[in-house]
């Protein structure tokens, strides 16, 4: 069967890219092309901009109640097609269908429902300056937003941008990752069916240097929300900052997972296995540097290795598959280069480090990698400092709290951290010392969308979640009325 060709979605219509060029995207589990993606250019972005700016005139004036109604309908429709979306996400990204069905797609629906509720329930500020006047703040929609997303949680992260953007009355041009465009494409028909007016959300598919850069460089797109790698974030900033664009950057990480000897051992072990290898380790929040207090180091390492060896790597459509395939051949090679580097730097591969030999037949050319644990590296080496973004973790013993906080913070990144201890005072002390946007104590990946989310240092600029998202996607104005 020849690969399906996707179209751009502009002004509620499926349209071919202006120059008519497409490229292949691959099924990572099989290593074969499965869709043709429009290689959009500036001309396509211009068309999308014309539609989005026209739609802005009415959408920005549409009542919150009506915006929320349509967004709730979008959420309902995504949920009604849960299995279809989950299968497509798995086929495109390599993750297990089960993960997509239980995490990615429900969360995408929840993003719309959450921000639909948020705009209905939020109130702005008011202050009475007695004898002088009365002030209140008003949120204004900003205009056409550029929303650029990565491949690891495709629909989940794209909708985390679209939902607050349109809830606040803006319109959008979205550019999903060129590796994973399928569920964004499917979302377009959901938007149509939910009755979202033409031009409010436009989807322009293509590469970062093509469509992505054209969005960032567009002189009349005043805000850019970007999730992706730190190097790309720097490039985007260098273009957007001198144009005074509003920028939200959610970037890479090298998160520490700190396990104290007084932890709930079984819970820490079980969750560390998940935080190391969920989604093939391709979650920006995965804990890739595991530090374990010396008295339990050997026991924890043995348990982690045993657990990793018990994880099933393979056919993403099977319910009991734990790890599917990495997203692309290029990314597989990059991750493997770190397995090699880890050994050159003196590390010992405790388990994994290879493509599973058992995967033959249709999966023999898939981009699979066994869960890999490397010990014996020092925290200053490249393998322990650079983001790998795959099923590869390092493990290292520590003796004191001060020492481990130093290791955790000695990083260019500052996205998240997990701390495992049953000592409440220590938990609060360590959590407050850690330089990361999110610190979990005795858990991982628990998210409350009302709370701020974002990274410190090279992990990002700005915060999203709750009112932080509303602040990013709207201009706040103060109006003062004299007494
Ligand atoms: P990437 O930076 O290569 O690409 C992300 C998106 O940016 C893609 O849509 C890409 O086409 C586009 N892009 C690339 N170059 C561009 C340019 N010059 N101008 C405009 N757009 C451009 O990232 P990726 O490989 O897709 O994703 C993996 C990275 O994302 C990892 O570093 C991971 O940590 C990070 N990430 C961060 C978070 C977070 O919340 N902080 C969440 C998920 C992923």
From TrEMBL:
It comes from Podila minutissima. CDD domains: ALDH_F8_HMSADH (cd07093). Gene3D superfamilies: Aldehyde Dehydrogenase, Chain A, domain 1, Aldehyde Dehydrogenase, Chain A, domain 2. The active site is at residue 250. Belongs to the aldehyde dehydrogenase family. Coiled coil: none annotated. The lineage of its organism: Eukaryota, Fungi, Fungi incertae sedis, Mucoromycota, Mortierellomycotina. It holds the Pfam family Aldedh. The keyword NAD applies. InterPro entries: Ald_DH/histidinol_DH, Ald_DH_C, Ald_DH_CS_CYS, Ald_DH_CS_GLU, Ald_DH_N, Aldehyde_DH_dom. This is Aldehyde dehydrogenase domain-containing protein. Keywords: NAD, Oxidoreductase. GO terms for molecular function: oxidoreductase activity, acting on the aldehyde or oxo group of donors, NAD or NADP as acceptor. SUPFAM superfamilies: ALDH-like (SSF53720). The keyword Cytoplasm does not apply. Residues 21-479 form the Aldehyde dehydrogenase domain.
């Amino acid at each position: 069967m020849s690969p399906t060709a996707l179209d751009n979605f502009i002004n509620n219509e499926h349209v071919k890219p202006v120059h008519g060029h497409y490229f292949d995207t691959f099924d990572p589990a099989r290593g074969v092309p499965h869709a043709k993606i429009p290689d959009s250019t500036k001309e396509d972005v211009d068309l999308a901009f014309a539609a989005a700016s026209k739609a802005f005139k009415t959408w920005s004036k549409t009542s919150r109640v009506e915006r929320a109604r349509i967004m709730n309908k979008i959420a309902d429709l995504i949920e009604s097609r849960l299995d279809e979306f989950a299968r497509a996400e798995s086929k495109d990204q390599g993750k297990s269908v089960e993960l997509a069905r239980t995490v990615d797609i429900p969360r995408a629906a929840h993003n719309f429902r959450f921000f639909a509720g948020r705009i209905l329930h939020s109130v702005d500020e008011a202050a009475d300056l007695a004898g002088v006047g009365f002030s209140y703040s008003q949120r204004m929609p900003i205009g056409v937003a550029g929303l650029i997303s990565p491949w690891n949680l495709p629909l989940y992260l794209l909708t985390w941008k679209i939902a607050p953007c349109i809830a606040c009355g803006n319109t959008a041009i979205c550019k999903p990752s060129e590796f994973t465009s399928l569920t964004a494409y499917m979302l377009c028909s959901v938007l149509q069916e939910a009755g979202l007016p033409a031009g409010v959300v436009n989807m322009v598919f293509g590469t970062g240097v093509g469509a992505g850069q054209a969005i960032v460089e567009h002189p009349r797109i005043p805000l850019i929300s970007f999730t992706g790698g730190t190097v790309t974030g720097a490039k985007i900033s260098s273009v957007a900052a001198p144009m005074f664009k509003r920028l939200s950057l959610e970037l890479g990480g090298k998160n520490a997972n700190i396990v104290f000897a007084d932890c709930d051992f079984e819970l820490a072990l079980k969750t560390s296995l998940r935080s190391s290898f969920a989604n093939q380790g391709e979650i920006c929040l995965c804990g890739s540097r595991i530090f374990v207090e010396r008295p339990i180091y050997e026991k924890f390492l043995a348990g982690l290795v045993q657990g990793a060896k018990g994880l099933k790597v393979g056919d993403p459509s099977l319910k009991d598959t734990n790890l599917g395939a990495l997203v692309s051949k290029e990314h597989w090679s990059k991750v493997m280069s770190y397995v090699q580097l880890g050994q050159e730097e003196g590390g010992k591969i405790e388990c994994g480090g290879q493509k599973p030999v058992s995967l033959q037949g249709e999966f023999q050319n898939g981009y699979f990698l066994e869960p890999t644990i490397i010990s014996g590296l020092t925290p200053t080496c490249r393998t322990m400092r650079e983001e790998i973004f795959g099923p590869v973790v390092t493990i290292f013993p520590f003796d004191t709290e001060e020492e481990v906080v130093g290791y955790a913070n000695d990083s260019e990144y500052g996205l998240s951290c997990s701390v495992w201890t049953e000592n409440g005072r220590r938990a609060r002390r360590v959590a407050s010392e850690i330089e990361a946007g999110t610190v979990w104590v005795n858990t991982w990946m628990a998210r409350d969308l009302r709370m701020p989310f974002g990274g410190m240092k090279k992990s990002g600029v700005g915060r999203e979640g709750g009112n932080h998202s509303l602040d990013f996607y709207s201009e706040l104005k103060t109006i003062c009325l004299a007494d």
